[in-house]
Write a structure and sequence with these properties.
CATH superfamily: GIY-YIG endonuclease
CATH class: Alpha Beta
Largest sheet: 3 strands, antiparallel
Number of domains: 1
Number of helices: 4
CATH architecture: 3-Layer(aba) Sandwich
Helix content: 40-55%
Low-confidence stretches: none
Radius of gyration: 13 Å
Shape: globular
Strand content: 15-25%
Amino acid sequence: MKPSDKAYTLYILKCSDDTYYTGIALDIDKRVHEHNTSDKGAKYTRYRRPVTLMYQESCHDKSTALKRERAVKRMKRSAKEALWICG
């Protein structure tokens, strides 16, 4: 399997200031840990710790994950919340 063929996960984090952060990762557990503890987490979340994983969605490849990330980032807050409330 080529690195580009690995399954990616789209995720939404809830930050301590009640905002949401959307990203993609190959290893979701490692990435959430990085957001909460290391300098490898996004600058946005670094100053809004702790963060909580609210939603995750598996994507077949990086291209699909990036397209989905872009779409989710454009969503209104209520639409993002509906992802985990409505399933």
